[in-house]
Amino acid sequence: MGAYILRRLLLIIPTLFGIMLINFALTQFVPGGPVEQVLARLEGQGDAFKSVAGGAGDAGAEQAGAQDSGGYIGARGLPPEFIDQLEAEFGFARIVCDAGYTGPVTTAAPECRKETIGMIERFWIMMGNYLRFDFGTSYFRSISVVDLVLEKMPVSISLGLWSTLIAYLISIPLGIRKAVRDGTAFDTWTSGAIIVGYAIPGFLFAVMLMVLFAGGSYFQWFPLRGLVSENWNELPWWQKITDYLWHMVLPITASTISSFATMTLLTKNSFLDEIRKQYVMTARAKGLSEGRVLYGHVFRNAMLIVIAGFPAVFVSVFFGGSMIIETIFSLDGLGRLGFEAAVARDYPVLFGTLFFFSLLGLVVGILSDMMYVFVDPRIDFEGRG
């Protein structure tokens, strides 16, 4: 098992490289990069130079409207040297000055010139920085990507871990009971409820919960937004825990619905397949109790397919599903951060979160394989080849 885990760990490197390469290449064909985003904002707010571009904005603001660059959509009226400085700050170009020049590094000086950095070179620079765990700084938030991810992580961890844990704790026992009582009234009405829950989109269910229980039109039992109350730091430790759980009830319920339905039916079908096999009838013929047959023999085999789906369930709840839930309940987590970074073309944040979630998914996949062996020691990944 040790050699297999080592091979899987080493496989993470080329897999991550391929994921980053494909996504980096795709972004090059998306119109409206970060430079154009900033220029569009500046055309709409002439006093935003200082807040967006730092020191380069002071010189650019004085000359705004004096020249027509024509290089970018929305760049009319902005001086070319300001645009060159912006490209250099975002890593799309570099400003090179002659030897011995000691003045300001700007293309407005005759001794300096702009050199465009190609797509391939930018990709290798980014990957080299990632190898040093340098994920850069957000284009628009003036904060490092690592600090930004750490700031948003508690929300996503809360949603992802609690939703996955609750989904498994409810789905597995319910799926087993549905398999044992297959065809009964219990199986029929629970299947109907599960199908209805699965058919309702998570965001629509979240809105329904807000209307019903968060002061919409009926009850105001739960808070409308946020992870904790504003006075959370002033509360004693036990009230902090209560306040946190109180805020998480509705978001977790909304994010658990779809994964709960899928996992329940998957567990039921898996157990039904195992219950009908010959070894189960043999175990019953030997006089073993029903509990011993189910949890001593059937459980290990039936749970393999459920465990196999854990990485996909965890990552989808942790990132994909949480984006909409975070937006609806005003939770500032990683899902919402990644979406906003994609819209704003904030490439350091976009690729930083992509790298993080890709690495997380690959590591969870290895843990899933380890759980295979824990549930059924007969599985030997070493001898599979």
UniProtKB/TrEMBL annotation:
ABC transmembrane type-1 domain span: 153-368
GO cellular component, one term: plasma membrane
Protein's membrane topology: Multi-pass membrane protein
CDD domains according to UniProt: TM_PBP2 (cd06261)
Any one GO BP annotation for this protein: microcin transport
Transmembrane regions: 9-30, 155-176, 188-214, 244-267, 302-329, 349-375
Subcellular location: Cell inner membrane; Cell membrane
Keywords assigned: Cell inner membrane, Cell membrane, Membrane, Transmembrane, Transmembrane helix, Transport
Cited InterPro entries: MetI-like, MetI-like_sf
Membrane in keyword set: yes
PROSITE patterns reported for this sequence: ABC_TM1
Family label: Belongs to the binding-protein-dependent transport system permease family.
Protein name (record): Microcin C ABC transporter permease YejB
